[in-house]
From TrEMBL:
It comes from Acidiferrimicrobium australe. It comes from the Bacteria. This is Histidine ammonia-lyase. Gene3D superfamilies: Fumarase/aspartase (Central domain) (1.20.200.10), Fumarase/aspartase (N-terminal domain) (1.10.275.10). The lineage of its organism: Bacteria, Bacillati, Actinomycetota, Acidimicrobiia, Acidimicrobiales. It holds the Pfam family Lyase_aromatic.
Length: 484
């Protein structure tokens, strides 16, 4: 199947998922083809009727040479085939293919209503990139005021002769930011669900009182995210044993779970909004407005639309919220080891004569991931444009995305450590969690079995597999859904 795009209304997160994750192609609808053809005709009339008008990259040189005006003959001779063109960025880490596919999809939003002043054939060629092996786009070195460097990678395999004005539409704008934001936005709910399920498993393992998760608190707090987190935790803990609990309140790290998980839900919701807006946004420079009653040939104006100011701070907010989840996971792993009162075993995760204190190493490892998450979860500021007088401010999106990937890796690791610790504590004390959590517990133990050996065993590879798989292991009850 193929996603049919007739207008910018079709650039949704659902369609992004179909193209990027499920590998579907993209076809231009007839409405889009008519709009592009009409706009291209209008743009060519504009150039003929106003030969002295400034159109960046068409009647002038791009970048630092913007002050140099091109004659009509130079404009025609500057038609360009992108075949063989290469970006100078490099690095050992590259974007996954699904993200590159998402960039191709997002690129077409500027075209479908005629704002790229390009022929339908150019948009067809861009959509056709999805049918062939896609280029490798490094994660490092992708700087600049817009996205010319990564888009030059993306368009390097495009072989089509371009008319005046069509070159800039290929490599200008911010489709990369839209795709990077959408990639995290569609994956974040799965990780959020895994976090809520794992923390609920920890609540059961620690025997924390359930009153801190009473849904009635939502009316008192009045925040949609916190209310949803209460509902999510409540779904996992439904029918939990209310009697076999601590006789006093649990540590702060257990009682504030709905608040911190609510913070994460709010951040994800804002990222999803930012990504949805960015996918359908026209972000080119110059941007072409099709003909209307006032401008019979349309108009082309210079803008800063290529600078995406929505996605980087939204990514930063999710990163910060998830770094806090890593802190809570580390605290829970520690709490499961040290216990709280005399009615706990001296070491909650070890049977007498069993694995002993070997599992305390899990807490050490959790502390390491906590520091890595905190180091990565820093605010991404606008980079300088260095020595270029025209391009004097750079784009922060790739930096925010790279940092978020690091935080996400730490979240996965911390949740794996907590899930394994919770499983061990329940096994040591011969208890089962609430019914909704039992399938998850079985899956956790299928990857990281409980320790029953005084010498312990090397668990690193098991924990790595659990961290990589955990989000896929969670099938939340309907009321725990986090907008997948």
């Amino acid at each position: 199947m193929a996603v049919v795009v007739a207008s910018r209304r079709d650039f949704t997160l659902d369609n992004y998922r179909r193209v990027s994750v499920h590998g579907e192609g993209v076809t231009l609808g007839e409405e889009a083809r008519r709009a592009m053809a009409a706009s291209r005709t209008g743009f060519e009339r504009l150039l003929r009727s106003q030969p002295g008008t400034f159109v960046y990259g068409t009647t002038s040189r791009p970048g630092i040479e913007v002050g140099r005006t091109l004659t009509p003959d130079e404009q025609r001779s500057s038609t360009w085939s992108l075949h063989g063109e290469r970006s100078p960025s490099f690095g050992t880490d590259a974007l996954e293919e699904r993200v590159v596919r998402g960039m191709v999809f997002a690129r077409l939003a500027n075209y479908v209503e005629g704002h790229a002043n390009s022929r339908p054939e150019v948009a067809d060629a861009i959509a056709g990139l999805l049918d062939d092996p896609l280029p490798r786009i490094p994660l490092q070195g992708e700087v600049g005021p817009g996205e010319v460097i990564p888009l030059s990678h993306l368009m390097a395999g495009l072989s089509i002769d371009l008319l005046p004005g069509e070159r800039m539409a290929l490599v200008n704008g911010s489709p990369c930011a839209a795709a990077l934001g959408a990639d995290i936005a569609i994956g974040a709910p799965g990780r959020q669900a895994a976090a809520e399920a794992t923390f609920a498993l920890s609540v059961e393992a620690f025997r924390a009182p359930l009153e801190a998760y009473d849904p009635a608190l939502g009316d008192l707090w009045g925040d949609e995210g916190e209310t949803a987190a209460l509902s999510g935790l409540g779904s996992w803990l439904h029918d939990a044993d209310a009697d076999n609990r601590l006789g006093h309140q649990a540590p702060v790290s257990y009682r504030i779970l709905p608040k911190v998980l609510g913070q994460s839900r709010r951040a994800i919701a804002e990222l999803r909004r930012a990504a949805a807006v960015s996918l359908r946004s026209v972000s080119d420079n110059p941007v072409y407005f099709p003909p209307d009653d006032v401008h019979p040939h349309g108009r082309a104006i210079s803008t800063g639309g290529f600078h995406n100011a929505l996605v980087p701070p939204a990514l930063d907010a999710v990163s910060a919220a998830w770094a806090d989840l890593v802190l809570l996971a580390e605290r829970h792993v520690t709490a499961l080891h040290v216990g709280q009162t005399a009615d706990h075993l001296p070491h909650l995760l070890a049977r007498p004569g069993g694995a002993g204190g070997r599992t305390n190493l899990l807490g050490w490892v959790a502390g390491s991931y906590l520091e890595e998450a905190r180091s990565a979860a820093t605010m991404t500021h606008l980079p300088s444009g260095w020595a270029d007088a025209q391009n004097d401010v750079a784009n922060p999106t790739f930096a925010a995305y790279r940092k978020h990937r690091e935080v996400a890796r730490c979240v996965d690791a911390a949740l794996a450590l907590l899930a394994a610790s919770s499983s061990q504590a329940l096994w040591v004390t011969d208890r089962l969690p609430a019914p909704a959590l039992r399938p998850l517990l079985d899956r956790v133990r299928s990857i990281v079995p409980p320790l029953d050996d005084p010498a312990g065993r090397a668990m690193g590879e098991e924990l790595a597999r659990l961290g990589a798989a955990l989000a896929g292991l969670v099938r939340p009850p309907a009321s725990a859904d986090v907008d997948r």
